[in-house]
Write a structure and sequence with these properties.
Blueprint lengths: L5 E6 L6 H12 L4 E6 L9 H9 L25 E4 L2 H4 L11 E4 L12 H23 L8 H13 L2
Parallel strand pairs: 1-2, 1-3, 3-4
């Protein structure tokens, strides 16, 4: 077993909902084993109010969250990445920058809760569902025996997690 901390980047187009929720979950569940970050190809510049409300209600730290470009993680001096996960279909279909560290990648698509229409309760449920799905996937991921899986087996497991409901 290694004491190494793995760097994980979650990507979504606007970096305002899903990727930020995933970053928060990973930094909470994977504390001491993983450092999570989030970014977007076309960041909105603000965290979605529904995502912030959900994260605050679940007692995740939100003070340092911000919507940022994925260019920050491709620049010189960026943390070397071990894993990059896209959580929206748009980001998964875009040509990504070169990531320092040659990370393993997988698509863990989740529906965009900010696009759900209806009452406040319906919208809140959409954010809760997003959290539940990402929490489940991240929980599975952080419990993988990362140091004992070969690269091919690990890639298969990462892809399988993305297909889980």
């Amino acid at each position: 077993m290694t004491d190494r901390v793995f760097n994980v980047l979650f990507l979504c187009t606007h970096n305002s909902c899903r990727s930020v929720i995933a970053e928060s979950i990973m930094n909470s569940l994977g504390q001491g084993k993983f450092n999570a970050f989030s970014a977007g190809s076309h960041p909105s510049g603000a965290i979605n109010a529904g995502a912030l409300t959900l994260l605050e209600r679940l007692n995740y730290p939100v003070a340092n969250l911000r919507s940022k470009s994925w260019d920050e993680f491709a620049a010189a001096g960026a943390p070397p990445l071990d894993f990059v996960f896209t959580v929206c279909d748009d980001a998964a279909n875009e040509v990504c920058p070169f990531w320092p560290g040659q990370p393993m990648t997988a698509h863990w698509g989740v529906a965009d809760p900010s696009k759900v229409e209806g009452s406040d309760a319906v919208k809140a449920q959409a954010f809760a569902d997003t959290h539940r799905m990402l929490h489940q996937r991240i929980s599975i991921f952080i419990n993988l025996p990362l140091t004992s899986l070969d690269k091919l087996a690990l890639q298969k497991r990462l892809d399988d997690i993305g297909r889980s409901v």
